[in-house]
Design a protein that fits this description.
alpha+beta; Phosphorylase Kinase, domain 1; Aminoglycoside 3'-phosphotransferase, Chain: A, domain 2; 6-stranded antiparallel β-sheet; two-stranded antiparallel ribbon
Length: about 350
């Protein structure tokens, strides 16, 4: 993305060669399944992202443009349980029914004959997406308000009665960390390209550090500033995006994952290293966690485990991104095949797990 691009300006371009499909069957399907879809469809691809390819669909209705967003699985062989666009659609459809900030879901297609993979279509929304967690172009007061709303929206998500909105089967309540550690070890091994010593140590050690607390809520799985769309002028989230990794899980996994930005050195993912928390308006990690605790009344024991687990998980995800790019089916350019920071994350996770 260009450094001069406005936060509310989507970064789109031509469809990547490895993600091309025939748009004619897609347009026919959408016109048959989405009311007033429009005609003369034009397809562009959103830049960025490392998982499910995302596209802008622009049609014409009575001479006026109408825009939608389509998310699909990547082409080729993919890891088991990964890229579950069907789950993204299901959770956002359910949350939309209680006015939680998500885009309006239009239709889900599981017929791979249309474009080669499952996909869903949702409304395009106008708003700001902050790619840089430092919010450099904003004043301290707005930075503070944005991070406060980020925290408040996460608390609101974790308070949702998932049974009441039809998500009782969205995951398995309880044993979240046991299942997640097992899953991400398996995913990591399935995409492994070289030895990372700190990953081996984490694989051996994390199972013995799992907390006794077995609380269950909806867990977003990728909760961080870049995956939020804010109101065009207000410090208020209007859409939580990228639900691919969501499930029924432990709420503190989301909180810890959100706090990776206090430790990661990747501006692309989100990094707050070097920020002056006294003057910037951005809360320190301790202040951000305290705000969550204050809002929920939840006690946190062994914060080091939650952080280390979240970094281990992200490192495993990064390994999968690298493998897809090496196989030519990812969203990364050939010259940028590994921006995951997985080695850094694994080393940092091991360091945090063993700190005082």
């Amino acid at each position: 993305m260009s450094e001069t691009r406005r936060p509310d300006e989507p970064a789109i371009g031509e469809i990547r060669a490895n993600h091309r499909f025939d748009p004619a069957p897609l347009e026919a399907w959408c016109r048959a399944n989405i009311e007033d879809f429009g005609d003369a469809m034009v397809v562009k691809q959103f830049a960025g992202g490392a998982s499910n390819p995302t596209f802008m669909l622009t049609t014409q209705v009575d001479g006026a443009p109408r825009r939608y967003v389509m998310r699909k699985k990547p082409p080729g062989a993919i890891l088991a349980s990964a890229h579950a666009v069907e789950r993204e659609y299901k959770v956002m459809k359910a949350l939309g029914s209680i006015d939680f900030p998500v885009p309006k879901m239009r239709a889900l297609c599981e017929d791979t004959a249309v474009i080669g993979t499952a996909f869903y279509v949702m409304d395009f929304m106008e708003g700001r997406i902050f790619r840089d967690a430092r919010l450099l172009d904003l004043e301290p007061a707005e930075r503070a308000a944005i991070y406060d709303n980020l925290n408040e929206t996460m608390v609101r998500l974790h308070a949702v009665d998932y049974q009441a909105i039809g998500l009782g089967d969205y995951g398995k309540p309880g044993n979240y960390f046991e299942r997640q550690i097992g899953r991400w070890i398996k995913q990591y091994r399935g995409a492994e390209t070289h030895l990372i010593p700190s990953m081996e140590k984490l694989i051996e050690t994390l199972p013995g550090r799992m907390p006794k607390d077995d609380t269950t809520s909806i867990a977003h799985g990728d909760y961080r500033p870049e995956n939020m769309m804010f109101h065009p002028t207000e410090p208020r989230i209007i859409a939580v995006l990228d639900w691919e990794l969501s499930t029924l899980g432990h709420p503190l996994a989301d909180l810890a994952y959100n706090c990776i930005i206090y430790h990661h050195d990747s501006i692309q993912f989100g990094s707050l290293l070097g920020i002056d928390f006294k003057t910037s308006g951005i809360p320190s990690e301790e202040e951000y966690v305290a705000a969550y605790v204050r809002r929920t009344g939840r006690e946190i024991e062994d914060w080091n485990f939650y952080l280390a687990f979240s970094m281990f998980r992200l490192a495993s995800i990064g390994q999968g991104v690298l493998k897809r790019n090496l196989d030519g089916i990812g969203t990364g350019d050939a010259v940028e095949i590994d921006k995951s920071g997985k080695n850094f994350l694994a080393d940092k996770a091991w360091e945090i797990l063993n700190r005082g």
